[in-house]
Amino acid sequence: MESDISLHRRFEAAQRSARLREDDARDAGDFAEAVLAGLTRQPRRIPCRFFYDARGSELFEEITKLDEYYPTRTETALLETYGSEIAERAGQGRVLVEFGSGSSRKTSLLLSALGEVPAYVPIDIAAESLSEAAEWLSGQHRGLTILPLIADFTTTRTLPAVAEGRPLLGFFSGSTIGNLSHDEARAFLANAADLLGEGSAFLVGVDLKKPASILIPAYNDARGVTAAFNLNLLRRINRELQATFDLARFAHDAVWNAQAGRVEMYLVSLARQTVRVLGREFFFAPGERIHTENSHKYTVAEFQALARAGGWRPAEAWTDPDNLFSLHLLRLP
Ligand code: AVJ
How far is the CA of 103 from the centre of ligand 1 (A)? Predict the structure, then answer.
């Protein structure tokens, strides 16, 4: 006779895979819709959240190790240097809520600095990277209660029960906030304020404005890893949306838009060509571009003003000696 626990586990597993199948169907629909709409509009654009299929996530991991791509190692060094100070300022015994399953190494540094936390709640739409990150972290932090939440972290309104009535610390690393427009970033911060609630604190990684001579190589590295990361989007569209993109007839481009304060990435058509996606034809002239990502950069003061507009009180900020990257501790008034 099968025990209740294993019955329950089998039921949970069945639920999870059913949810995963539902998520896959929802994601596929979302992907198809976003690509067709994005290629129909002018200027053409495909949202950057679709970079992260399995190959895209691998390529991003490679990007974080590039000499030119300073954000990841600089943020990691800030956590290594100021982790205990940040933990002391943030306050002990807080449930850690991470927006995005992020890079586990940075999360692990923060968890080590925080010491005992009642629970860790990573929120991500990508169920797979969420469970991988949770597995790795549970190996690093024995006894840590990890409660992954499969949800869109820009809009989610609910947290697991363990978070109720407890002080919370939010964590949003990697300057992923830079992918959002200023209005979207303000809305995200306001939603996070509602989600985390009174008395909470929020640690946000923000890439700083700097000369284009540093920014452009960081988004267009000599080895072409970022180019492969960007072009991989076309490979994914070919695979998942029965498309006919010829990757050799598109090139990667990254430009610094000083007026908007952001790096913009594009895929540029190298020829007159027609591409079919899900049976629909799209004509590209030579030089025509598809926008794939914005990475907004801020000064410390600019981000603090944005945080205030999102309902937060900027408490403290840490930057590296070369002023490349910043970590901001925000509090709810
Ligand atoms: C993961 C979104 C923070 O914008 O710097 C890296 C993604 N794009 N190289 C960034 C990215 C090109 C990265 N974020």
Answer: 12
Indicate whether residue 219 lines ligand 1 (CB < 6 A). yes
Note the residue count of the chain. 333
> What is the whole-number distance in angstroms between the Cα of residue 63 and the centre of ligand 1?
9
- If one residue of 46, 51, 60, 327 were mutated to test the ligand 1 pocket, choosing by the most ligand atoms within 8 A of its CB, it would be 60
Minimal-distance CA residue to ligand 1 atom 1:
176
Tens digit of each residue's pLDDT (9 = 90 or more) over 83-104: 999 999 999 999 999 998 766 7
In the chain the beta strands, taken as DSSP E runs, fall at: 44-45, 95-99, 120-124, 149-150, 168-172, 201-207, 250-257, 262-269, 273-277, 280-284, 289-296, 313-319, 325-331
Task: Please give the number of the atom of ligand 1 that sits closest to the Cα of 230.
Answer: 12
* CA 272 and chain centroid, separation: 34
Ligand 1, atom nearest to 71 Cα: 5
Q: What is the DSSP letter of 163?
A: G
CB 155 within 8 A of CB 271: no
- Which tokens belong to 303? 């981000």
Contact 206, 177 (CB under 8 A): yes
Backbone angles phi, psi at 312, to 5 degrees: -105, 155
CA 324 vs. chain centroid, Å, equals 19
Predicted TM-score (pTM) of this structure: 0.91
**Cβ proximity of 193 and 314 under 8 Å:** no
Question: Does the beta carbon of 56 sit less than 6 angstroms from any atom of ligand 1?
Answer: no
Q: Whose CA is nearest to atom 9 of ligand 1?
A: 219
Cα(288)–Cα(278) distance, integer angstroms: 21
- Is 179 near ligand 1, meaning CB less than 6 Å away? yes
- Rounded to a whole number, what is the largest CA-CA distance in the chain? 69
Q: How many of the other CB atoms lie within 10 Å of CB of 22?
A: 10
- The CA distance from 232 to 54, in Å, is 10
pLDDT by residue (tens digit) across 202-250? 999 999 999 999 999 999 999 999 999 999 999 999 999 999 999 999 9
Cβ–Cβ under 8 Å, residues 98 and 121: yes
Ligand 1 close to Cβ of residue 174 (< 6 A): yes
